[in-house]
Amino acid sequence: MIKHLVMWTLHDKKDALEVKNTLEALKDKVPSIIDIEVGIDFSRTDVSADVVLYSTFADQDALEAYKAHPDHQAVLPMMAKVTSSRQVVDYHI
After folding, report:
1. What span, in angstroms and rounded, lies between the C-alpha atoms of 47 and 42?
2. Range 17-20 contact pairs with CB under 8 angstroms and sequence separation of 24 or more
3. List of domains in the chain
4. Is the pTM of this model over 0.90?
5. C or N: which end of the chain has fewer Cβ atoms within 10 Å?
């Protein structure tokens, strides 16, 4: 199993709910996603990210299929527009 975590800082925190809804909608569109959870930070500290994606895939091939999937690719321009930074961690469980 693979866990795929992504954290974003947004230009405008008002975009957080749209980001959450857009990312969560991928669960019904991308077959290789086993589970997906998107959280919006409420602590708002200087070191907090604004949005986090926590997702699960069967293996590395499934993660790569997700990354290449047209519905995931369609989200990337919107994410690039609303985010100022992004951090990713992928690990085996």
Report:
1. 12
2. 18/82, 19/51, 19/79, 19/82, 20/51
3. 2-92 (3.30.70.100)
4. yes
5. C
